[in-house]
Prior knowledge:
Layout lengths: L13 E8 L8 E8 L5 E11 L1 H7 L16 E8 L11 E4 L2 E3 L5 H4 L10 E2 L19 E5 L12 H4 L5 H11 L7 E5 L3 H12 L3 E6 L5 H7 L3 E4 L3 H5 L5 E6 L8 H4 L2 E9 L12 H4 L4 E4 L5 H14 L5 E5 L3 H9 L6 E5 L6
Helix pairs in contact: 4-5
Amino acid sequence: MSAITEPLTARPAAGTVRSWAAPAATSTLAPLAIRRREPLPTDVAIEILYCGVCHSDLHTVRNEWGGTIYPCVPGHEIVGRVTKVGRDVKKFKEGDLAAVGCMVDSDRTCPACQRGLEQYCDRFTLTYNSPDQHLGGITYGGYSESIVVDEAFTLKISNKLDLAATAPLLCAGITTYSPLRHWKVGPGQKVGIVGLGGLGHMGVKFAHAFGAHVVLFTTTPGKAADALRLGADEVVISKNEDEMKKHANSFDFILDAVSAQHDINAYLALLKLDGTLTQVGAPEKPLPVSVFNLIFKRRQFAGSLIGGIAETQEMLDFCADHNIVSDIELIGIHQINEAYERLLKSDVKYRFVIDMASLKK
């Protein structure tokens, strides 16, 4: 399916920038010229320095979740430098560092938006593959040389942190930070993190920083040393039933970051009375749940989606104060198709980040 471009009557002026896009679900990504609007009064124009590679990018590019409109320019973990601001912008000036996450707008009036939970707005605009309210067609993401975003959805970042390693905080970071904060994870609690990948490694770092006793669950014994390095207090090989049984009825909170099919009941059984398991990994098919695992200990099985703009800024500030970034592998844009194949094999520790200077070569 091709992107539909509406007539540009009464729409803002636009310029052309370089990007990499998927022309179809079965195609590899390739160079594409796309349009970006000139900054409106409350807009911030950003030269993109780094863009993280999220598993959602791969799912969307290959239309595994349905609804992808092509050409698709992925990327929602964006770090860059401000090149221009609209006349009414108050928070940013030319030359500032800035970041953009998974959203670039919402209706700003619904109950969710009023609570600072824009990610639950029914009419939010995703950074890519959403209707573009300004130029028509769809939004294009961070696999490009620049982006223009309203300042209300633009974030400040610290120059104290490695900028490339900061990029994945815009999705992997906030996706794990938000539920840990919402369920008030802290000292004196036993917290499990399921899976040591792009999401899971950030979950371990945050849970450790919040003062919890952190247990990492993995199917791969070879990841144990890395889990301990990242902040886990214990590592459990989840394929070992005896190891799992030792932890029955003992967890206050478990964050499940696994996107592959797996037995969720094995983890629900580890929660203590009133414990919560929150799912942030997104398996393609439904996970069967035995309701008795919930009923008999009044356990909760919940979900969580990224975070609102204010909470994302809070997370970025927390990371600056505690020197927390993602573990990354820096790549050039020309390596993106290879990176996608490696991502399918979990062959990265723990997040790919594109050096967007490579787009100009």
